[in-house]
TrEMBL record:
Record keywords: Membrane, Signal-anchor, Transmembrane, Transmembrane helix
Family: Belongs to the PC-esterase family. TBL subfamily.
Lineage: superkingdom: Eukaryota
Record's protein name: Trichome birefringence-like N-terminal domain-containing protein
Main location (coarse class): membrane
Domain Trichome birefringence-like C-terminal, residue spans: 97-365
InterPro entries from the UniProt entry: TBL (IPR029962), TBL_C (IPR026057), TBL_N (IPR025846)
Membrane topology: Single-pass membrane protein
Residues passing through the membrane, by range: 12-31
Length: 378
């Protein structure tokens, strides 16, 4: 996307200058729009802060949430140290609206909220359903789970006074991945997005699967237009191409008067302790967050890519810029406790209760900004 300047002749110089000025102004406006979507409560940025111990945490009893799969249920899988459950995110210099699950189901009666993306989106979806259920423990619900790539799973709170559906669409690249007869990643195609247009709030995410290699790579070929090739050496460029396809689709298909659109920022992993000054360790060797507000390692690669894509969009999209706060939580991954036999090595997903609960508190603050209850406490 963007303007091509190659074919302008000299008599079009005035037009070129005018177009350039309009482009710069529009980009500045778009970047400001994204920043305004991040900043709440005056000049306070919810995404800058530190993790503090709070004995009133966690926000819900994991054993009483019926939606948590084995991979996220670190308590049930025998994790002996539960301090990771006791940390609350404290934004620097301000508070944020508290998550009010009862108020949420009242406001969103008859509506649908959908998380779209990879297993990190699934992590956040499960967290959201647990938080809603903890606030409404007597609510009736139905569930539907699907293992198919293009299908939608859901938790539906069916009481007449609630009637809220929380859905998850497993779409790890957002663009199309056809799996028969070969696995072909169609980097410039979205053909199954109609379901996204039918919801009231949609939260998109994609990142980790773009960088899987070897046996973890999920495609045999990449298709772009009428060309196919085995791979793209520059995976960051592939990620950017995919997000360009997604952002173009959203601009052409989503009605912002009907649907609020969010993009979940990059969720970091903590596989290699040498990246933050602890060689020969992984997340499994750490039981406390980093102190303070600064991550001691290198910035997360790729953070600029979704921000760039969002800056060019005409559709209002709120960025859930969760990377920095999540990088500080080296202690909060399932590690060996993503299964009961202790054979897991998961430093990518998050234990529940845990970090995604904070993402959802900020999501709630963005969906219901006029809640007026300024407290990030329990």
């Amino acid at each position: 996307m963007g303007f091509s300047l190659r074919n302008f002749s000299s008599h079009n110089a005035f037009l070129l200058n005018s177009l350039f000025i309009v482009l710069i102004i529009s980009l500045i406006f778009s970047v400001d729009h994204i920043h305004a979507a991040i900043v709440k409560s005056g000049s306070c940025d919810f995404y800058q802060g530190s993790w503090v111990l709070d004995e009133s945490y966690p926000l819900y009893d994991t054993s009483r949430c019926p939606f948590i799969p084995e991979g996220f249920n670190c308590v049930a899988n025998g994790r002996p140290n539960n301090d990771y459950l006791k940390y609350r995110w404290s934004p620097t210099g301000c508070d944020a609206p508290k998550f009010d699950g009862q108020e949420f189901v009242k406001r969103f009666k008859g509506k649908k909220i959908m998380f779209v993306g990879d297993s990190i989106s699934n992590n956040q979806w499960v967290s959201f359903t647990c938080m809603i259920y903890a606030a409404n423990p007597n609510a009736k619900f139905t569930t539907f789970y699907s293992e198919e790539m293009s299908s939608v799973s859901s938790v539906n709170f069916t009481d007449p006074e609630y009637d809220v559906s929380i859905l998850f669409n497993f779409k790890p690249f957002l663009v199309e991945l056809e799996e028969t007869p070969e696995r072909v990643l169609k980097i410039d195609t979205i053909s199954t997005g109609d379901v996204w247009k039918e919801v009231d709030v949609v939260i998109f995410n994609t990142w980790h699967w773009w960088f899987h290699t070897g046996r973890l790579q999920h495609w045999d070929k990449i298709q772009e237009g009428d060309k196919t090739y085995p791979d793209i050496d520059d995976r960051m460029a592939a990620f950017a191409k995919g997000l360009t396809t997604w952002s173009t689709w959203v601009d052409r298909n989503i009605d912002p008067k009907k649907t609020q659109v969010f993009y979940q920022g990059i969720s970091p992993s903590h596989m290699r302790g040498k990246e933050w000054g602890f060689p020969n360790t992984t997340c499994a060797d750490h039981t406390t967050p980093f102190n303070g507000t600064t991550y001691p390692g290198a910035p997360e690669p790729g953070v600029a890519v979704p921000k760039e894509a969002l800056s060019k969009m005409s559709t209002p999209v709120t960025l859930l810029d969760v990377t920095t706060m999540s990088k500080l939580r080296k202690d909060a991954h399932p590690s060996h406790y993503a299964n009961k036999d202790g054979t897991s090595r998961d430093c990518s997903h998050w234990c529940l209760a845990g970090v995604p609960d904070t993402w959802n508190r900020i999501l709630y603050a963005s969906i219901v900004p006029e809640s007026g209850n300024l407290s990030f406490g329990p």
